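Tutorial handout. Part one gives the primary structure; part two gives the three-dimensional structure as tokens.
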Amino acid sequence: MHVLNNVTPAMRTIHMVASILVVLIIASCASEPVRNPVPHELQNAAQVVDMPGIRVWGDGSDDLLHADIVQSIHNEPEGLFPRGPNGEFQYSGLALSGGGDHGAFGAGFLKGWSQSGTRPVFKIVTGISTGALIAPFAMLGSAYDETLQKAYTTITVDDVMKKRWIVGAYWRESLVDNHPLQEMVHEIISNEVIDAIGMAHKKGQRLFVATTNFDAQRPVIWNMGAVAISKHPDAYSLFRKILVASTSIPVLFPPTFVEVEAGGEIYEEMHVDGGTVGQMFFYGSSLDWQTVLRDASGIETPIDQSILYAIIDGEVNPEHEVVRRRLMPITDRTIKTLVKVSAWSALYRMYLHAQVGGYDFNFVSLPNDYVAKNNQPYDPVEMNRMFEIGYGMGLKGEGWQSVPPGL
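Part two.
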């Protein structure tokens, strides 16, 4: 007892540091979790087990996607997407960006747009990251506005992630546990919601969500309606798994693994946040829109008066900010800059494809004069504030822009 009483604070500190070093040394010797990745030569042949045809690569033209959109036009019930007096196509598409808790802005904008009476029925809805969670409700219409409002104004950070001790991070896949996110997705994306997406799919609407195949460094576009109507026993769980994968920022959240088959063998693909390769998308280079309309209508030169709307859950213009000479402020500024530049890039790509495809393009974003009063993630007060800003803009039809910033 006498010896213990004479242990100095310095000795205690040395003992603590030594203990941490022992833990880190043990961590470095820990075995890596085993996985069976898809070989490079088989990545184009890989299909989800017993569910072929539910996805395409997002960085190249694809005959499967072309045929699916043509078929969707043939499946439309009369009156859902009325043509113009001279047979003009008049579709509305919607692209939803990433942005984490800033998805509250997009949710509010959609509700205000509904209240204005001008929100269209969308032919195609796409989503990445938080936009992937909004997208199913955006497709299903105003009946789900209250669900969106609750999801984006009442949650806290504890509903999205479970923090872990930094000690031991070496042998883990992520800094936080995303089981709370999985539970939240399971709660708001009910079987009834998935069934409703399946019904919309049968009527010619399309819901696409993007993830990133991390091994391949390529975007993957998932046809969520095709998943919903597949009648596969794992369809509901896969639908939710894709949404979780699309929202799982690598390093922060663990990756999602999807079992696939290629060359008669079973493998695992690693999927992470779709925003890793782009903050938003429509169909990109995977589809020639004019050829789709020609093949679907039989008209050599179809008249297209369609319009693509994009909702960006964040600001898009450059913002001046004096950065402190410390690691965390520099890291934070770096991430924000990379995300914003990724959003610019996505806007330019969609704008270019609209010009080539012959349809109109409009986007809206969180106003540049918005300044957060609380920078803590998933703060209900701040999310309510962003929701109300979006609601007011959607109700008044304000903020739409037709040209990307800087063009």
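Part three, for discussion. The first helix runs from residue 2 to 5. Residues 1-7 have pLDDT under 50 and may be disordered.
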